[in-house]
Amino acid sequence: MSDRAAVRRRGRRAARLLRGCVLPGALCALAGVLTAPGQAAAAQAAECRLRPAEQHVDWTGRRFTGDLLCEVEPGHIRLQSRSTSTVSGEMLFTPAWFVCWKQGSTYPGTDLWYYTQGDQVVTTPAAKAWGYVPATSVKAPEHPFPNLAKCPWT
């Protein structure tokens, strides 16, 4: 099972548990219920790791071998590596994986973007939520992450 599938399953489980929680949010969290995506991750140190054997196929049929698994800030996935690009998906869960990086338009704090598949399609269903997130959303110790492939297109 992929890490993304496991994360989705944990998110659905947390949502079910939360629906049954009648305590204030902080007490539910103390009882072991995740109250919001990323909340527990924010309390932990950011940890990223390369997974050289992971396989992915994007919406165009391009195949990727290897990815980076890293904590993220949930948010928009953009179809292109520009802050003005169409939002194709949403990143709802953390950690998330990324297959490559590239330079794009300047986004507050960076011009580096990571290519991934979001958790939820927003627009452009044919793109299957594939697109870019700004490097500032990826909780990596440095950008671009060492030894993660640069995207083969410009």
UniProtKB/TrEMBL annotation:
Claim: Signal is one of the keywords in the record: yes
Keywords: Signal
Recorded superkingdom: Bacteria
Signal peptide span: 1-31
Protein name, as recorded: Secreted protein
Organism: Streptomyces longispororuber
